[in-house]
Amino acid sequence: MTYRARGQVPAVRGLRRVAVGVVAGLLFVEPVAAQCITGQLSPQLLVPGGQFGLALARHGDELLVGSRKSATVYVRNRQGTPGDGTDDIWSVQTLLLAPSPGDLFGTAVAIQGDTLAVGAGVGFAAFTGSVFIYRRVDLGRPGDPGDDTWVLAAQLLAELPAGSIANLFGYAVAIDGDWLAVGSKSTLPGMPPNHGLVHMYRRDAAGTPDDPSDDEWVLHSLLLPGEVEASQDFGAALQLVSPHLLIGAPGSVLVPGSGALFHFRLQNEGDSEGPSDVVWVEHARIAPPFGYAGYGFGTAVSLDGDRFLARANGVREYRRDDKGTPDDLSDDVWVMEATLTDVNASTFSLVGDFALAGLPFSTPQSFHGAAFVFRRTGVVSDGTAERSGWMQVATLTPPGSFPGGPVDFGSAVLLMDEHALVGETGFHFGLPAGDSTSGPYGAVTIHALAQGPWSFTDVALANGAGKPCLLGSGPVQPESPVRLTVGGAPSWGMLALVAGLSQVDLPFKGGVMVPAVDLVSWQVADEDGRLVLEGRWPEGVPSGTVLHLQAWMPDITGPQGFSATNGLHRIAP
């Protein structure tokens, strides 16, 4: 393999081609690094106990981070080389402050296109809650969200019949197109206390055409399940992908202690698609599998197309099955497709063939919480039916030292392209060891995920700034572009790129040398501690050949004077 270095870094040439070396397991599913941390986001406003990282949402390269106890929401914009997480800059585009203190502004967040919604669980109208709608204003270059700002467009309060008791309006929100769903623990007249309901709003663009500044959000309907129960918490979790709406009700006890999820579907009952002709109707009540009662089913849910993840004494995947008339949603059913893990996670994110589950409490992996990455392995058969198969490919744990106790790593999780984002609301930073008097403030840690033919081994040897990271990108076809990126090295520091055709995992300088030392190429990192090497995958490499890579660097802040990246592996098809 021949590389050329970006900038003034000398070229790396002549990585030797060798015989087939197959690593068991890599041909089945490529492992993902348990730790390849490419960044960590922290709040600008340092409010002790602020819970920065409690709520996460994204649209494109924009990220929302809720900080409930500090009553702020950060809108961050990611800029960097596509596929290369080491040079990403997550700049603060806008900092949204609560219009009134003490309202838990940022409890829930949602964004789509030019609209974002922020839930504030308490604080307005006798602690009933509120939702704030913001719209994007492009102040700079068209199509560049980095110079946009967000302005308050509307404040929504619970609109309920006389005699109702409003409670925690806005503790869950979801937005899709012209629809906004808001959860609350409110009680309607004559119904059991705190049963909960979902308020459905529809955008009314009756003002100036193509001018969103005079749009309004109008209450369309109040959704209730067919059987209402006391403390049902109907609306505790929301996932909206029109025409489908999933609603969590973890307090449902129709099956004792079971919890429930409800599938509502948008359907047209008139001659047009106007607000008066479309309605949300309950399509299905989804209960946890038999034997999994009492494990918070309905507390959290993540919907991706025709599949969702839910908590049921572990992480379970459900699939929408078209049992009846093709293209007729009315006869579809939801079936449990797979069990990802028996660990009873609290937060989820499902995107395509990747799943991320957070457990922000003490675990066997970490006293401070953990998150688990899963990858779909294809279709497997249990002897009676074919089902989706999953494999856990990573365990993420918080970086650094943790004065003051648990960091609640996994408070929120989000899959964002080639990254796994994990909120840790109890994280302390910038404090002397053992000093927790000024925190915690919270943080969001960004982990890289191996994509395609690339895989990781989690053996990075940390330096004073954290764990250096080695990433790879590019397909494995002959003459296809290849890119290697090192991040987290000492500024202007020397580093040795070690390449081998076998994986040896030998102790070295307080860490682990992953590849056999078949070739060593010395390079120089730039001012930011980054190195980028580009080249092409050569022709004639035998199928199954595995190339193992790792970067080592002299580093006075590392154990025994060295630090090292994770191992990186690439398999030729």
Structural class by helix and strand composition: mainly beta
Write down the CATH class of the domain at 1-31 and 455-573: Mainly Beta
Distance between the termini: 15 Å
Helix content percent band: under 10%
What does this structure look like?
It contains no helices and 40 strands. The N terminus is likely disordered. The chain is globular and about 75 Å long. Strand 20 and strand 21 form a beta hairpin. The protein has 573 residues and is mostly beta strands. Among the domains are: 150 residues, Immunoglobulin-like, CATH 2.60.40; 125 residues, no CATH class. The relative contact order is 0.14. The strands form 10 sheets. Strands 30, 33, 36, 38, 39 and 40 form a 6-stranded antiparallel β-sheet that branches. The chain has a 4-stranded antiparallel β-sheet with strand order 1-37-32-31, with no helix packed on it. A 4-stranded antiparallel β-sheet has the order 2-29-28-27, with no helix packed on it.
List the SSEs and their pairings.
Blueprint: E1 2-5, E2 37-41, E3 52-59, E4 62-67, E5 72-79, E6 89-97, E7 105-112, E8 115-120, E9 130-138, E10 148-156, E11 172-176, E12 179-184, E13 197-204, E14 216-223, E15 238-241, E16 244-249, E17 260-268, E18 278-286, E19 301-304, E20 307-311, E21 315-322, E22 332-341, E23 347-351, E24 354-359, E25 370-381, E26 386-396, E27 409-416, E28 419-424, E29 443-448, E30 454-457, E31 469-473, E32 481-487, E33 494-500, E34 503-508, E35 511-515, E36 519-524, E37 531-536, E38 546-554, E39 562-564, E40 567-571
Antiparallel strand pairs: 1-37, 2-29, 3-4, 4-5, 5-6, 7-8, 8-9, 9-10, 11-12, 12-13, 13-14, 15-16, 16-17, 17-18, 19-20, 20-21, 21-22, 23-24, 24-25, 25-26, 27-28, 28-29, 30-40, 31-32, 32-37, 33-36, 33-38, 34-35, 38-39, 38-40
